[in-house]
Each structure stands twice: as structure tokens, then as C-alpha cells.
Amino acid sequence: MNTQSRGFEAVFGRALEGQAAAPGRVNLLGEHTDYQGGFVLPTAIPQHTTVTVARNGTGRHRVYAADLDRQAGFAVLGADMAELPEFARYVAGALTLGGAREGLDVHVHSDVPMGAGLSSSAALEVAVLRALRGLGVYGGDDVALALAAQRVEHEFVGVLCGVMDQMASSLADAQHMLLLDTRSLDRRVLPLPAGAEVLVVDSGVPRTLAGSGYNTRRAEVEEAARLLGVPELRDVQDVAAVEELPPPLRARARHVVTENARVLQAVEADAAAFGALMNASHRSLRDDYEVSHPQVDALVAALQALPDVFGARMTGAGFGGALVALVRTGTAASAGKAAIQAVGGQGQVVVPAQT
Ligand code: GLA
To answer: What is the pTM of this model?
Structure first.
């Protein structure tokens, strides 16, 4: 019996029926493009969320979050989201959209850092849906599952996110990059640039997506697309027209259009060129999209100054949270340590995972 099953039985007093896991993700390039039909390039991180389940024979679901040591219960039919703690909303949404019609006991354990922009919420949604699939309750394939997980954010949590995080958690692995066209959902699994590995540092600056400017940015770029007369900024052909937009829409649209171009360039890039694209992405997110944070900027600059670092940038929605770097193979842990030291000890290496 593993730790997870002991946890489950201790909490619910019954044997588990199924277990599933899903990873967090880090986005290497293509930030704030996925709600404008653009391109993204995430990879899975080794940290993941594990969900253990069993039917409980009642009309209520019970959820226990081991890392928070908190429990919540709600009716199978018609849970009131406003009354649920946030962690339970993700689970309630996934159980509802995953078609759970009988009460389930759900045990959640995760080592994906929460609120760091590494998709702990997508990992939770995908893991719950996978657990339902394991029970024969949910029948969708990996793409349908990712889309259902995205609907959880929209309909149950109130975050109008794109599809990148859920697609990455459902389809990516930690050894490859997932090149995803977020409009068609066409995708390619690519190797990392030769001679390079991924470093992820959590700046420790807390952020919550729902409370952040995420939905504001989304509204701004939708307005920019409307003014430019295109369905989405993905469709912008006339780059000069972007410069005619009023502020701040001009800068917001410039970020999205140039970021899409960077992802497409990165597909053919070697490590050095890929790194340069990451550096350019950071500048664009900091100056044009204005979603970075001074502490994140300081860590990014410290990383960019190191000889073994090809490039570094903030990652995820921004407003604090994690940053990602592409570094020479074998140097990630030491580069992360050196950068954290350079900014006075603020921050923590997430990838490579600490053992
Ligand atoms: C969050 C969202 C994603 C994406 C990123 C920014 O992670 O969930 O859909 O928009 O921000 O690239």
C-alpha cells in the first residue's frame, strides 16, 4: 500500500477504487497568446497532482486536500460554488463536467507549487477527470478531457483562461516541448534544443490568477482585435496597423503578435537562438503586456547574466510567480542557486526537482 492509499483510507474509512495523476506545466514560449488563437510551447514539469477516489454510496461528494488538510462536501446535483473553498471548486467542476452522478470520496495530494504560474489548477482538474475515466465514468480522450478541464475554469472558477495549461497537463511530458496551435489544437511533440535543459524558479511573489489582471488583459486584446477588424490577433497580417491602435491596446497587441512570431521561430532554433527569443519574450511581457513583477525581473536579469544560461523569462500568467530559463545541460540547479543568491536569497528552484 502506498502513502496515497493510506491517506485516503485514513480520511474516508474505506478502500480506494482508483487513482490518477497529472503534471503541472511550465511554458517555454508563447505567453498570453492562447486566448487569441495563437501558438504556445509548454512542457510538463516533474511535479504532479494525485487524485484518489472511491464511490461513497451517497448523494454527496467529499473532497479532502491533503496539502491544505482541509475537507469540503457538496451535493452531487447542484453544488453551490459560492459556498465552496477554492480547491473544492476545481474538483466540483471536474466531477460535474466529468459526469459523476454518484457520490465520490476524493483525496487530493500535490507537489505542484500552488499559485506560482505552474498550473496546479490544471493538474488538479486533469487528475480528477483522469480518475473518473479510470472508473469508467468519463469517456473523453486526452483532448476532450483538456477542453472539459478548461470549462471548469470558465464555468466553475470564473477564470477565462485559454487552453494551454489543460492541454499541457493532459498531453505533454517533461522530456519534450508541446508545440500547440491553440485555435486548431494541432500539435507537435518536439525535443528540447540540443545541449539544453529547463530551469524553473519560483520567485515566491504570490499571485492569484482570478484576482489578477488576467481577465482585464483578455478584454484589452479582444478590443484590439475588434478595432483591427480581425477575429483574433493570430490573424493580424498588417503589423503596422497595430501601431495605430490607442494605448494601452497598441502595446498589448504588439506583445501578442510578436510573441506568436517568436514561437514559430523557436521551432527551428538552436539553444542560443531559443534563449534569445525567451529574453525578447520577457521584455515584451514586462514592457508591453505589463504582467511581470520587479522581483521576477530581478531574477530574470540575474539568470540572463550567467554564462550557462541561454535565456530566461517570466512564465505563466505573470504578476509574480515562476520564471523559466533554458540552460546548458547539467547546469540548471547551480544556475538557479546562483541567481537566487544574486537577488539576496529570494526564490526557490522548482525544476530540477529537489530530492
Ligand atoms: C494562464 C492561463 C493560460 C495562459 C497563460 C498565459 O496560465 O491559464 O491559458 O493564458 O496564463 O500565457
So the answer is: 0.96
